[in-house]
Design brief:
CATH topology of the largest domain: Rossmann fold
Number of strands: 12
Largest sheet: 6 strands, mixed
Low-confidence stretches: 338-358
CATH superfamily of the largest domain: P-loop containing nucleotide triphosphate hydrolases
Family: Belongs to the ABC transporter superfamily.
Number of helices: 16
Helix content: 25-40%
Distance between the termini: 43 Å
Shape: globular
Strand order of the largest sheet: 6-7-8-3-9-10
Pfam families: ABC_tran (PF00005)
Oligomer: single chain
GO molecular function: ATP binding
CATH architecture of the largest domain: 3-Layer(aba) Sandwich
CATH class of the largest domain: Alpha Beta
InterPro entries: AAA+_ATPase, ABC_osmolyte_uptake_ATP-bind, ABC_transporter-like_ATP-bd, ABC_transporter-like_CS, Gly-betaine_transp_ATP-bd, P-loop_NTPase
Protein name: Glycine betaine/L-proline ABC transporter ATP-binding protein
Strand content: 15-25%
């Protein structure tokens, strides 16, 4: 069962929202409804988020991504549709039950750090536990552990204004982790940071995810951030999800011209991997000559110099040294947009045709 499911969600602001939903379902255009006094912010959004997945929702300003996020934990009530969390319909809960779910099972990390200036770092990190009614000794212990997880050991007694922006955001992340919530909702959480600190926070999140395996919904307008963090990505435009897939699927097979134009400046070499470039070997012992090999997760940026050193298609092997496929150099160049690079010749090693058994 998915951890989280959005089922045909609509959110319309303004007059006669249910009538507007009906018109949208009949094919009405968003712009026409806005002229009539209704503003469709989210239109027929459906997706699932699996347990332990980082699911990224991305789009430009006004695309509806933050509105969609706020429906996922009940901060905004959908005009139509359902949100299922752990099999429970959040849209059917009474307000008191919904508050309990939000305080115990769902945590949110905001773009702006939302720290209390009159509380120290430790008290800020423990605030979610205080809301839950956790005894002081236990909440301080759990908050301390969370601060250590995000790299702020030794800063517990500091004040928020003594911290850099990146460190303040780490406190916000620690506050979310301290509650041990099953679901983290992160709304443009790194957007206010400068590029170097932002990348450092991305590294921090990925490192934490490898050990904690949280279910995360992450909102961003930055495509490179989405590609780096997301196990899957939903691209939004004008309130609708226009494509949903892995970073590689979106790069290799954009759903429409809008997505294609959106991704044109992405550094493909750091997103696409050997798994997306490999082709089946034509015989089981292909590329079994003892040359350098790569793993399925090797990026094309790391793979390209290997193709220059190895005079035949590079073997892709798993952790058990099982051959999964081979990557011809021309395949890498094609995926990177260079169709003219020649295969390096070698008299002492098999040719590409010989190595693959073609």
């Amino acid at each position: 069962m998915p951890s989280l499911q959005a089922d045909h969600l609509y959110k319309v602001f303004g007059r006669r929202p249910l009538d507007a939903v009906h018109e949208l379902q009949q094919g009405a255009e968003r712009a026409a409804l806005r002229d009539g006094g209704s503003t469709p912010a989210v239109i027929d959004a459906s997706f699932t988020v699996e347990e332990g997945e980082i699911f990224v929702i991305m789009g430009l300003s006004g695309s509806g991504k933050s509105t969609l996020l706020r429906m996922l934990n009940g901060l905004l009530e959908p005009t139509c549709g359902r949100v299922l969390f752990g099999g429970q319909d959040l849209t059917a809960l009474a307000p008191s039950e919904l508050r309990r779910v939000r305080s115990h099972q769902i945590s949110m990390v905001f773009q702006h750090f939302a720290l209390f200036p009159h509380h120290g770092v430790l008290e800020n990190a423990a605030y979610g536990l205080e809301v839950q009614g956790v005894p002081r000794e236990e909440r301080l212990r759990r908050a301390t552990e969370a601060l250590h997880l995000v790299g702020l050991k030794g800063w517990e007694k500091s004040w928020p204004d003594e911290l850099s922006g990146g460190m303040q955001q780490r406190v916000g992340l620690a506050r979310a982790l301290a509650t041990d919530a099953e679901l983290l909702l992160m709304d443009e959480s790194f957007s206010a940071l400068d590029p170097l600190i932002r990348r450092d926070m991305q590294d921090q999140l990925l490192e934490l995810q490898r050990s904690l395996h949280k279910t995360i919904v992450f909102i961003t307008h930055d495509l490179n951030e989405a590609m780096r963090l997301g196990d899957r990505i939903a691209v939004m435009r004008d309130g609708r999800i226009v494509q949903l897939g892995t970073a590689e699927q979106i790069l290799v097979e954009p759903a429409n011209d809008y997505v294609a134009s959106f991704i044109q400046d992405v550094d493909r070499s750091r997103v696409l991997t050997a798994a997306s470039a490999m082709v089946p070997p034509h015989r089981p012992d292909a590329a079994g000559c003892g040359c350098e090999t790569v793993t399925p997760n090797t990026t094309l940026a790391e793979l390209l110099p290997v193709t220059a050193r190895v005079p035949h298609p590079v073997a892709v092997r798993d952790d058990g040294d099982r051959l999964l496929g081979v990557v011809p150099r021309q395949r890498v160049l094609t995926l990177l947009g260079d169709h003219d690079g020649p295969q390096t010749p070698c008299d002492a090693r098999p040719t590409e045709k010989e190595a693959t058994g073609a």
